[in-house]
């Protein structure tokens, strides 16, 4: 079965606009379009009950119910309990809060491991924590040619002092999907906590956390067709070990413990729209009714994923001969649909501008994966690499147009 692209595009308001129809949008890793169901729920909240929720009045009750539905729907999508979930401003903010809360386990003389492959969101907060606690920050280094992480290199740096290991589920530059469960098998017996950055992975395959053996998982809902927020799941036994970062009188409410800012009511309510969107996509493609939302989402995610892989394979096959370096694997096996490249003779900026002239949106730079760029010896980090990041709503016509453009621009 294939993804019905006409149906999918009918679910996104952007494709009902002239500009949305014209532009082939390949900067999805920066933020995806929101689904209609999300926009509708957000608008409904703002129009009809945008007040302090849970108040003892009909409006407060409605607002509270809408927020609860947003929270519960997200928990159902991820297949976790609602108590384990923190919803914050962004993935970066959530990870920074988590790192600060680890001050009781990351103490003087202990170690935290981060990777060179990660976005700075999953490095900087840990570096600051280590400095503050007089602990050691160790880097799990990548292979400088490929940017890949290898388990043998991790084994060499693990020690009895290691308390936390932070790694990305997939790279926002080279696209490689890391073997999270294998990493967990290696480190869990040593009592090391595993923190996974799923921001780059989640838009391509909505995470089902019963399949992943990690202690904390973080991603951004503005990259998964939702509102601009970050969701963080922290398993209860880990959460219990952390220093609460909330008001002291809220510490008995598990999901508030790592909530530093107070929630964005309307945006949380609108998260229910992501569930509506997956439900609608499921009902359009499948007939079996009585299965949980996370299973429906998994089936839809597989369709999305194979559609993206088809488009990306076409891109990879057709730019292979051009004078450029392609980062990451040359086929879609074990990678997600983010393709990064650096041309030998043309700047990434001028390729981006050239593509924009034929209505192809791309982006260049270091994408905050600064350490990875340095490790892979990418020169001029301001120009950086050109990245084409796909979503399931992209079409083959857009990819063909993009390939034609790249052939003319990269000489
Ligand atoms: C892999 C990865 N991690 C973390 C982030 C930061 O996410 P947020 O903007 O929600 O803080 C990004 C953003 O692009 C990312 O690509």
Describe this structure in words.
39% of the residues lie in helices and 14% in strands. The chain is built from 15 helices and 13 strands. α8 (180-187) links the parallel β5 (162-168) and β6. The longest helix is centred in the C-terminal third of the chain and has 27 residues, at 293-319. The radius of gyration is 21 Å and the shape is globular. The relative contact order is 0.17. The structure holds pyridoxal-5'-phosphate.
Compute the number of structural domains: 2
Helix content: 25-40%
Low-confidence segments: none
Specify the number of helices: 15
Small-molecule binders here are: pyridoxal-5'-phosphate
CATH architecture of the largest domain: 3-Layer(aba) Sandwich
CATH class value of the largest domain: Alpha Beta
* Widest sheet, order of strands: 2-8-7-6-5-3-4
Amino-to-carboxy terminus distance: 39 Å
């Amino acid at each position: 079965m294939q993804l019905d692209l006409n149906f999918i595009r009918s679910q996104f308001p952007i494709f009902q606009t002239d500009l949305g129809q014209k532009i082939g949008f390949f900067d999805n890793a920066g933020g995806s379009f929101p689904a209609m169901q999300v926009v509708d729920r957000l608008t409904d909240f703002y129009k009809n009950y945008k007040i302090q929720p849970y108040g003892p009045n009909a409006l407060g009750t409605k607002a509270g119910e809408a927020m609860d539905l947003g929270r519960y729907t997200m928990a159902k999508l991820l297949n976790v309990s609602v108590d384990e979930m923190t919803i914050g401003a962004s993935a970066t903010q959530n990870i920074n809060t988590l790192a600060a809360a680890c001050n009781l386990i990351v103490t003087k003389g202990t170690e935290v491991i981060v990777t060179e492959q990660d976005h700075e969101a999953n490095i900087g907060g840990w570096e600051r924590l280590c400095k503050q606690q007089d602990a050691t920050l160790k880097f799990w280094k990548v292979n400088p040619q490929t940017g890949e992480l290898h388990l043998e290199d991790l084994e060499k740096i693990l020690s009895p002092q290691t308390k936390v290991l932070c790694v990305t589920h997939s790279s926002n530059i080279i696209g490689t999907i890391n073997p999270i469960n294998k990493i967990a098998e290696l480190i869990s017996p040593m009592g090391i906590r595993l923190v996974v950055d799923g921001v780059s992975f989640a838009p391509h395959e909505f995470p089902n956390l019963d399949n992943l053996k990690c202690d904390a998982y973080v991603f951004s809902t503005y990259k998964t067709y939702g509102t601009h927020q970050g969701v963080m799941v922290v398993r209860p036994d880990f959460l219990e070990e952390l220093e609460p970062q909330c008001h002291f009188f809220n510490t008995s409410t598990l999901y508030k413990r790592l909530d530093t800012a107070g929630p964005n009511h309307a945006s949380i309510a609108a998260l229910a729209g992501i569930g509506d969107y997956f439900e609608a996509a499921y009902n359009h493609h499948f007939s079996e009714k009585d299965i949980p939302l996370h299973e429906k989402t998994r089936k839809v995610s597989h369709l999305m994923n194979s559609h993206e892989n088809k488009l990306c394979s076409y891109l990879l096959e057709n730019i292979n001969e051009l004078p450029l370096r392609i980062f990451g694997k040359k086929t879609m096996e074990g990678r997600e649909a983010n393709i990064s490249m650096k041309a030998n003779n043309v700047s990434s900026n001028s390729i981006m501008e050239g593509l924009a002239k034929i209505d192809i949106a791309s982006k260049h730079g270091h994408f905050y994966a600064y350490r990875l760029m340095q490790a892979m010896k990418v020169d001029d980090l301001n120009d950086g690499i050109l990245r084409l990041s796909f979503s399931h709503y992209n079409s083959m016509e857009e990819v063909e147009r993009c390939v034609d453009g790249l052939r003319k621009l990269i000489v």
